Amino acid sequence: MEQFTISIYTENMIGLLHRVTTIFTRRHINIESITASESEVSGIHRYTVVITEEEVNVKNVVKQIEKQIEIFKAFYHRNEDIVYQEMALYKMPTNILSQTREVEQIVRKHHARLLAVEPEFTIIEKTGFKEETQDLFEQLKPHGILEFVRSGRISISKRMKEFQDYYSEVEKASRL
Amino acid sequence: MEPTQLTKTQVKKTTITGAEALVRALIAEKVDTIFGYPGGAIMPVYDALYYYEKELKHIMTRHEQGATHAAQGYARISGKVGVCLATSGPGATNLITGLADAQLDSTAIVCITGQVSSKMIGTDAFQETDIVSISMPVTKWNIQITKAKDIPAAIAKAFYIAKSGKPGPVLIDITKDAQFETFEFTYEPCHHIRSYVPNPQIDSKAIELAARVIDSAKKPLIVFGHGILLADARKEFQAFVEKTGIPAAWTIMGLSALNTDHPLNIGMLGMHGNYAPNIMTNECDVLIAVGMRFDDRVTGDVSRYAKQAKIIHLEIDPAEINKNVTVDVAVLGNCKESLDQLTKAITPKEYPDWLHRAKELITTENEMVIKDELFPPENDKITMGEVIRRISDISKGAAIIVTDVGQHQMIAQRYYNFRQWKSNVTSGGLGTMGFALPAAIGAKFGAPHRQVIAVIGDGGFQMTIQELGTLFQTRVDVKILILNNEFLGMVRQWQDLFFEKRYSSVDMVNPDFQIIAKGYGITAEKVTEREDLESAIHRFLSHDGSFLLEVLVGKENNIFPMIPTGASVSEIRLE
């Protein structure tokens, strides 16, 4: 078993995400994280799904995903073949920051930044690998975290123009 | 007002309701027969149908599941798209079994469901159910429509998706307000979807490679499936088989793509298939799979399936390549084209020793299994096999055989001599009991001039027995053969072989099927003795109109050969 990141290029359509997730559910594959938003091509959306599976199963899942009518293409990658990040937000009581220097030092050490400072609370933002955002979480925890949230992974392949080469073929076919 | 007058005026109008647009879109797709059941949320569509009854014949089944199977039977025999209509809520959920069946057996059907008004969606309204989510895993594509103007494009897309590439079921859910709403109607058929590649281009290198592998073979075997029927590749496949001289075996979905008595047809693959093709699967050096998907009922233990052979796979769906069995040469594309190219690229050869091996194995099965099934000792109860073989002989192998699921299904496929292209309709992938009766009705509408025989067990018959009402009302001619062993025979066989004869919930206490049939105005007879069988079959087949023939067969007869679950194809048991 190995961690894989699957990038899926889709039409923007109600219910399509559900159609994709049932492909994982049916095979008893846990989705560790998922993000969805518009891609570099206007109107085409990109889902990024992280799973841990055997490669042979990942290959089959990717084909099943591509088989769905409104899916253009799906790619799967090992972690070494992509650059990826997650973002975490931490909500802390503002008085903790003003009373001690410790939290400020933690924030500096982790290259995190302050996103918002309100009289009652402060939002800290950290982008990085899951281990890094988790590490910051552990360090801030003793000082009283009010709320914490982490995004799903977003990733970019190290290959040049992975989807665009494919999409130009699609566009050509559409013009025929 | 006279309905016919309204039709004339409405046809000219282009500002019409969503409901009428749906009906006109169906007519534009050359649909002339639909199967369905009315209800609250689909009433505007039924109202529109009222004015188009000449162009669009609606067959009211007795249950929505029956409508889906009828649409499947219609689609499988006619090659056209089967269409179903149902209301929201329970009407829609009753479609699920048929959708799942059509999904696994690649059958082009379009189901249209009514939905509560868009304003009511999500309020747990009366007969509201989220059919789009529910049907997602069992449809090739589905969509909900809340605006009348979106109906024509959705219908066009639905028909294109259902029938192109690997065919499959599509569901369109239309809210009631969209059915009532009026708009300016125009219709454009769909020929292209930018994210969808139904017919992968055939790679000439793959053809060359496949041809080279076939040319080098000493003991090649062809295994073929539904893909040939779906691609309408009768001539291409027969030419391929005859030029190569390679023995060919079928999956139950591929049955009737090559005549049963073709000299190179060596029989049925899989769990209850013939002895020769199963043994030869693990002896061949090249396995050529055409339009089949290596279902577990065909492969047995997949880790011991044709390991010695180079495998060539002609397949339209990329997701099927290397899914169950890893192949050496994949030829993606429509097999009508790939078979034609491959036939041109190969050098004809003869395989006398290999065909001799087939004959040897066929003789073994004849001696150990078939002889007893077709010619049982005089004092034994009637066997299913002898009934089917007599029907086969008397109908000259030309009927459409629609089977349900279980022992009778295996027997019908093993012992009917199919001599006509596209004549077998069965529930292969899903194994849906209750499939045959409604599917046979649909098949008859799909091929009104052919004889349609539904072969059903006493268990499955009672799962959709209410469709006798559809038969009664439509007066179509469907022959119903009930092979009654007063058991759920296949489950009982498994309990016999693998659960030390603990017969748990398989004993059927049946009603008098003749009285039931007569209640529906259907002529019926029951045969319990062998001496009455022959004349009853003649009356059954020559009767003008539907006829139910019930034959009491041996209670505890088992179907052999058999590959037990988890065993390899070469471990096929003859007894």
TrEMBL record, chain A:
Domain ACT: 5-85
Family annotation (Gene3D superfamilies): 3.30.70.260, ACT-like. Chain A, domain 2
Keywords: Amino-acid biosynthesis, Branched-chain amino acid biosynthesis, Transferase
Domain of life from the UniProt record: Bacteria
Function noted in UniProt: Catalyzes the conversion of 2 pyruvate molecules into acetolactate in the first common step of the biosynthetic pathway of the branched-amino acids such as leucine, isoleucine, and valine.
UniProt xrefs under NCBIfam families: acolac_sm (TIGR00119)
Record note on quaternary structure: Dimer of large and small chains.
Protein name according to UniProt: Acetolactate synthase small subunit
Gene symbol of the encoding locus: ilvN
UniProtKB/TrEMBL annotation, chain B:
Domain Thiamine pyrophosphate enzyme TPP-binding, residue spans: 404-551
Pfam families: TPP_enzyme_C, TPP_enzyme_M, TPP_enzyme_N
GO molecular function: acetolactate synthase activity; flavin adenine dinucleotide binding; magnesium ion binding; thiamine pyrophosphate binding
Protein EC: 2.2.1.6
Cofactor binding note from Swiss-Prot or TrEMBL: Binds 1 thiamine pyrophosphate per subunit.
Cofactor list: thiamine diphosphate; Mg(2+)
Matching Gene3D superfamilies: 3.40.50.970, TPP-binding domain
Residues covered by the Thiamine pyrophosphate enzyme N-terminal TPP-binding domain: 17-133
GO CC, alphabetical: acetolactate synthase complex
Record field: catalytic activity: 2 pyruvate + H(+) = (2S)-2-acetolactate + CO2
Coiled coil (UniProt feature): none
Keyword field: Amino-acid biosynthesis, Branched-chain amino acid biosynthesis, Magnesium, Metal-binding, Thiamine pyrophosphate, Transferase
GO biological processes: isoleucine biosynthetic process; L-valine biosynthetic process
Pathway: Amino-acid biosynthesis; L-valine biosynthesis; L-valine from pyruvate: step 1/4; Amino-acid biosynthesis; L-isoleucine biosynthesis; L-isoleucine from 2-oxobutanoate: step 1/4
Sequence ranges assigned to domain Thiamine pyrophosphate enzyme central in this UniProt record: 207-342
CDD domains with a match to the protein in the record: TPP_AHAS, TPP_PYR_POX_like
Family: Belongs to the TPP enzyme family.
Protein known as: Acetolactate synthase
